[in-house]
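tool_call: predict_structure(chain=1)
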Amino acid sequence: MEEVEPAPLPIRDLAGFLAVALIRRFHFMTFSSSHMPPVNRRRGLFIFLVVAYIGMWAAMSPLLVSGYRRGDAREETGVLEQVCIAAAMLAPALAAILVVRCVERSGRVRDTLALRWTKPWGRAARACLMAFVVPAGLTTAALVISTFAGRYPFDGVHWHGLGTWAAAAVLNMLVSLPLFFGEELGWQGYLFPRLARDGDRRSPIRAYAVTGAAFALWHLPTLLMGGQYPGRPWYVSVPAMLVSCLLILPVFTWLRLRSGSVVPAVIGHAFVSSVSVEMVTEFADSKAALDPLHMSMAGWPGWIVTGAFVAFLTLTGRLQPSFYTARNVHQPASIRRP
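tool_result:
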């Protein structure tokens, strides 16, 4: 029988095959840590947490020693407080870089921690816009709930000057953006991907729980000084912060997963910690007392709206890393369509 020579692979099919291979390889390099020996991974996780926590306590030690306490949500932070906070926020990123470079030796820091810009540019712009829109929507919904519950002293929307305030708030957020890279390169760039390694169906659940708890307890020095919950004792502020972080962390992770970059997560975190807080003050009666536990993203109104949004993300599979892997891998198929 005459042998039939196999037909050459069409150029467009070959291009699609290579694209799939490159996407899989790129995803494996930048998110999965399953190729890393378990002992090395555990050592890296331990060193990361130790360095990040020591860095936080060391940065906050001048305030702790001086007996600083924040008793009012409207209280402005002084120069020393701002310096200590800035130093503390850089600790997770420094810990992650140290581990990647000196302990795991797992490749380029930029690739390993997803410190890259999403491409094409249109997709990057949409990802960054989503990092603004979602926190803004959640904050607004939380304030509406708190207002109807009678816990937020809503003073109306003062349209005159609203644009100026919004521009100033966003500008302040952008100025502080490098500090939030300091946090998210640690939590979203390093810790979550290490915990959500491939091959274990329970890994994502464990990753969200452990990363959220580590994120919350890392704030313990500031909580002891009334940072997030002014005037509240530690046995109220610590559990409240734990709930807040366990709920908001999946939102930041979703922003990171859908874009393949930590940049949208950084923007989302910066919005929640700056603009969202300023929204509470801006729309409230200037003479009324403000209690974040009852009127902010860090309080029960925020827990309700964030919990509902996280439930939506969970039910639609958007909190599973595999959701985005499958979508990216099958993307070249559309290129092959006539």
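agent: DSSP finds 14 helices and no strands in the chain. Proceeding to next step.
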